[in-house]
Amino acid sequence: MRQLRGEDARFVYAETGHANSNITLVYIYDPSTAPGGRVRFKGFLKHIESRLHLSPIFRQKLLRVPLELDYPYWIEDERFDIEYHVRHVALPKPGDWRQFCIQASRIHARPLDLSRPLWEIYLVEGLDSFLDLPADSFAILTKIHHAAIDVKAGAEITMLLHDTTAVTPHPEPPEPWFPESPPGSLSLLARAALHNVVQPLMLAAPLTRAVRQFTPALVGSLRELWLHPERLPITRFNAEVSPHRVFETRRFTIDEFKKVRSLVPGATINDAVLAVCGGALRRYLMTHDELPGPSMVSIAPLSIRNADQGVGSAAGFSMMRVPLGTEIEDPVRRLRSIHQHTSNADDIEQAVGAKELTDITKHAPAATLALSARLLADTAIGIGQHAPVASCTITNVPGPAVPLYFNGARMTYFSAIMPISDGMGLVFAVTSYDGKIIISPTSCREQIPDPEFFALCIRESFQEYLELASKPKPRRKPAGKKKGKAVGKKAKTRVGPRRRAAA
Hints:
single chain; alpha+beta; Chloramphenicol Acetyltransferase; 2 domains; six-stranded mixed sheet; 14 helices; 16 strands; globular
């Protein structure tokens, strides 16, 4: 039995009837590399069963403390049933990309049963009209609650479900598993009483450090919100979200993004991704006559890797608020503006979510955190009407650095559907795999009723940058000695009359 940390528990407390905290990892496969050229559901189920012992989240469920006097615990599910969590669906004819996005959005939007282990895996067949995919191609949707994994842990789940070669090792017999008996209510209340006595003492040190480090910058940020609310515009994405989700995707190559970043010296792939998203938002809202005057602002909870590190490399947690330059028509100027903001980010923006803030949420009383999470969810719209924190979120979901295989079938695509909430109705998930960068927006049906057009705006924004980056640069001819003398003589003859005229 292990207890949730404060930052994980808040995802449980903040759930509402129309906004849950699910993360859905989306994989698509080419079965031609699998034995017999096909993966059947029976083998699919057996493969997942052979990996259950690799992570505790597969067999553990939540145990809530009475009256929310302490954070919930992870305990083993005595009635665990793998066939409840692993499911099989198929697209209707013709089985095209649009149908797949609708099906994936519906699966993602359905809340997980909090009385069971917080995950579901779907095998989706019938992808008959996908471009560049052979017959019998299939997809896997892995839906996990945000309280069970963070974004970085999603990469670990991906790796433990897959192999790095097409030759699948023979699955070993499942390891014997004997669930532990859950503690009783009296035991939980005794633990809660002890924690509530100790927690104020544990909270003192990180709170003191946080106040010393963050107060000046935090006061400055609040001052900006009150004195200059027009700098944080309100858009359709700062409204209450509906229970209906929409999801789309566009794929690009990493080499093409390296060309785009070369438009501005020193710019990173991170900057280029933000610029493309900013250009897409500008196009989309201009079409609907809703483009605000000030720049829209994005929260980037995880740094997207630069070209030197590699897009799939590991990095620490950070949070940054970046203006996306939606008020700038010139694409290069937009990229330059974003690069200036990301390279000169304040320490407070980089440190949100770092150790001090983690310690504070870790030791905060559970009942207080549950109440504050609920109040934030209920008042997000009122806050957003005056000064929204940001217009959207752009987050990096680390992808595998090597080709992966599931039961011998080669993965050809990897992306994610992210949770949205009231006041923050748009999230861009940026993933990377097999030399490609995938940008996948998640929103609700009422805020983006035309997800195909929104995805087209992403593509057009990227193409605009790529065309500028692909234009041949004019070559400078080296000046010879004779030519240099001639230029010097001409310069002298020009200067003379100008000086005489001025005199």
